[in-house]
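RECORD TYPE: inverse folding
INPUT: structure tokens
STRUCTURE:
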């Protein structure tokens, strides 16, 4: 007899020591109903709802009753870790008595995250010449050699081959020596396929109740039909507001001169690459002549370069083709993968597909980059993700302008032929109108192109002084954040420290901000979404201007123009929707638990005066709105005077992201986070670990390119020193450490190292 949902939810909540919340119960029933009806569901669940419990319990119920696993896809590593390491173990233990068995779960990741057994025994060429031999012959020659030796020793011990189980970790350069990408893999023709860690992990995932993965992996599985995930009829997408961007990124292709050089090098003696090399130089010359920005069609000279490159790649492909599958070894497969990528990407750009957008960008490490991406992924998602399964999408931010229509449109759910779906806002347990004020500085001039005005700087100073620090400043550009930080440092002196994104690793800055009430932190987009600092350390969030996409953003401008041609409002559908999503995420940094109080200050008068202001306002949490400056200053002063002490911040205990069957505890792994002890996790609805709860910044890419997410360790510093001793350039070290050149340069300077550019 099927278990009752309410009984399961009650058991789960009681088992973890949590508290049932109306929104959580409502969401759990909505998920169950959607599965029964075969209708897709969009659920907006505010911070504190306990949404992970609200979808995991119905997912487990469905899996146990049908014998088919449920798939949960997240955007960030942080949430993936929370679900697998904290939420699911506790829920599984709590549901065992009710279900009669312990629910099982697993984590499925990309091939690059696992050791390759064939590569370990020499089945592939070294990614870096001589590095493996250094590990073999002289482990004392440097950190890299020691890492490779350690990886080989660990390979004899590990049961999973999962990189995240290796504690402490190793550098990206060392890991490349023992792993391969999906297109480099020999697949079922590999002589060691029976020992393959990836194949074993995916086989094990077919027998669990809940499989956790990420947006990109889920998308590749759906689009390419690789069947890396087990067959399922329920897909739950958390952090769903990120899905379109993640999917777009997954199917964005690049071409650079460096990619061509790498392909030529990998071919070695396997094929004649003289022509391919010459075409690479020709392509580089033509690409270097193009201005940064969108290409309205492929120019004739670029089309000529791409055609020659494609044809040269085709010739090399023919030479690389093995006489038989048995002749395809690791070296040949790596060469084929590199050349195939050149051919496919050149061919795609030349095709000038109707929905593709092509542009040129400049990358600090790669130089000129030719990129192509889909203008819209709506129909692709409709056909490949929302077909033949029930999809539940949830986030704290899905309802924009008071409806789900904007998000649903980008997902392909609206319009002729769209599948059945419904939207549900279960609210938040927080009392937003009494906990927070949304203040629009109506008296300030509208932001211009000449930087932050003096009046706005004066407003920032006044608000921060009255708040006694305690401020997270969210800016629309790196330049604006740095300018404001420099100005405030002059005005405040030593009284109120002002940190700025780029001064150090973001996680380090967030820890410092969360530890000291007087400290302020200014930054750009990655702070708008990833920071979770509950308590009195953050009582004021400043937003300098409405975060519209840049006017020269290739995809945003293409989408706006396409919608306008069809008679729609391109600005509202693209720019205003983008801004509403970011504003909601940014404003959401303020209230992270039921005891938080504070003010979100919008320093852009268009938030109340523009024709689209109502749409933006309806997208925000329901804070108490005002333009009364005097009232806001009084509120900030009172909050400062009555604020509880900031809880000291410590580094968290190590944790694992291992693939699990649900039968054993996770092994630890290091992940930099900010931790603050509290009694309960407001977001998940679960009690905190015995170790402190995390107030974290989720790993991710900063669109500005100015800040990486690396939390520098002693091993990283040693690697920088080793590189300097070996005479490596700054660019080479940045590429090796997988960080921006500016980030590597800043760290090298702090260590007193001199590196050539």
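DESIGNED SEQUENCE:
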């Amino acid at each position: 007899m099927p278990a009752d949902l309410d009984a399961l939810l009650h058991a789960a909540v009681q088992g973890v020591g949590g508290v049932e919340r109306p929104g959580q119960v409502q969401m759990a029933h909505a998920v169950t109903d959607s599965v029964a009806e075969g209708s897709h569901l969009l659920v907006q669940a505010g911070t504190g709802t306990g949404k992970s419990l609200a979808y995991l319990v119905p997912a487990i119920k469905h899996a146990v009753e049908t014998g088919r696993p449920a798939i949960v896809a997240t955007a960030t590593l942080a949430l993936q870790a929370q679900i697998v390491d904290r939420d699911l173990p506790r829920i599984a233990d709590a549901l065992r008595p009710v279900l009669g068995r312990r629910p099982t779960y697993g984590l499925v990741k990309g091939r690059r995250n696992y050791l390759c057994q064939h590569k370990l025994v020499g089945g592939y060429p070294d990614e870096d010449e001589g590095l493996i031999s250094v590990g073999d012959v002289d482990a004392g020659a440097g950190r890299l050699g020691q890492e490779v030796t350690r990886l080989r020793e660990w390979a004899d011990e590990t049961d999973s081959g999962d990189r995240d189980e290796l504690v402490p970790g190793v550098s990206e350069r060392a890991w490349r020596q023992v792993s391969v990408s999906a297109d480099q893999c020999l697949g079922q023709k590999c002589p060691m396929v029976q020992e393959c860690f990836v194949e074993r992990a995916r086989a094990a995932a077919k027998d669990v109740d809940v499989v956790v993965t990420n947006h990109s992996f889920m998308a590749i599985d759906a689009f390419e039909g690789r069947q890396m995930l087990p067959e399922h009829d329920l897909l739950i997408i958390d952090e769903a507001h990120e899905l379109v961007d993640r999917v777009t990124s997954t199917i964005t292709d690049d071409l650079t001169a460096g990619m061509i050089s790498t392909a030529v090098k990998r071919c070695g003696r396997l094929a004649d690459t003289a022509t391919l090399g010459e075409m690479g130089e020709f392509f580089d010359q033509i690409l270097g002549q193009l201005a940064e920005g969108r290409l309205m069609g492929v120019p004739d000279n670029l089309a000529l370069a791409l055609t020659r490159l494609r044809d040269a790649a085709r010739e090399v492909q023919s030479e690389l083709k093995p006489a038989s599958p048995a002749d395809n070894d690791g070296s040949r497969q790596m060469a084929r993968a590199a050349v195939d990528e050149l051919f496919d990407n050149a061919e795609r750009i030349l095709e000038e597909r109707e929905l593709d957008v092509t542009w040129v960008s400049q990358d600090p490490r790669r130089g000129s980059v030719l990129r192509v991406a889909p203008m819209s992924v709506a129909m692709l998602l409709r056909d490949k993700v929302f077909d033949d399964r029930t999809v539940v999408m949830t986030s704290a931010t899905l309802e924009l302008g008071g409806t789900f229509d904007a998000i649903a449109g980008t997902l392909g759910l609206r319009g002729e032929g769209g599948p059945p779906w419904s939207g549900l806002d279960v609210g938040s347990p927080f009392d937003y109108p009494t906990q927070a004020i949304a203040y629009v500085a109506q008296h300030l001039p509208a932001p211009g192109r000449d930087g932050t005005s003096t009046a706005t700087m004066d407003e920032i100073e006044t608000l921060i002084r009255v708040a006694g620090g305690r401020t997270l400043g969210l800016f629309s550009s790196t330049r604006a954040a740095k300018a404001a930080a420099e100005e405030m440092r002059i005005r405040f002196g030593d009284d109120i420290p002002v940190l700025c994104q780029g001064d150090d690793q973001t996680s380090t800055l967030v820890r410092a901000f969360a530890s000291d009430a007087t400290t302020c932190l200014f930054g750009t987009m990655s702070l708008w979404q990833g920071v979770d600092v509950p308590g009195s350390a953050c009582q004021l969030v400043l937003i300098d201007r409405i975060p519209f996409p840049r006017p020269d953003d290739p995809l945003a401008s293409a989408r706006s123009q396409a919608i306008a041609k069809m008679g729609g409002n391109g600005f509202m559908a693209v720019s205003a929707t983008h801004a509403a999503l970011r504003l909601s995420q940014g404003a959401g940094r303020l209230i992270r638990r039921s005891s938080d109080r504070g003010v979100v200050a919008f320093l852009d008068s268009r938030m109340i005066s523009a024709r689209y202001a109502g749409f933006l306002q309806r997208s925000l949490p329901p804070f108490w709105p005002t333009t009364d400056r005097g009232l806001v200053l009084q509120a900030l002063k009172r909050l400062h005077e009555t604020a509880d002490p900031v809880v000291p911040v410590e580094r968290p205990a190590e944790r694992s992201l291992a693939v699990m069957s649900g039968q054993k505890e996770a092994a630890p792994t290091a992940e930099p986070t900010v931790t603050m002890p509290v009694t309960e996790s407001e977001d998940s609805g679960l009690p905190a670990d015995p170790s402190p709860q995390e107030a974290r910044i989720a790993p991710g890419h900063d669109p500005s390119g100015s800040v990486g997410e690396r939390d520098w360790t002693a091993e990283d510093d040693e690697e920088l020193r080793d590189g300097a001793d070996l005479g490596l350039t700054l660019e080479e070290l940045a590429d090796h450490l997988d960080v921006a050149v500016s980030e590597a340069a800043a760290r090298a300077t702090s260590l007193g190292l001199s590196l050539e550019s």
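NOTES: The two ends are 69 Å apart (CA to CA).
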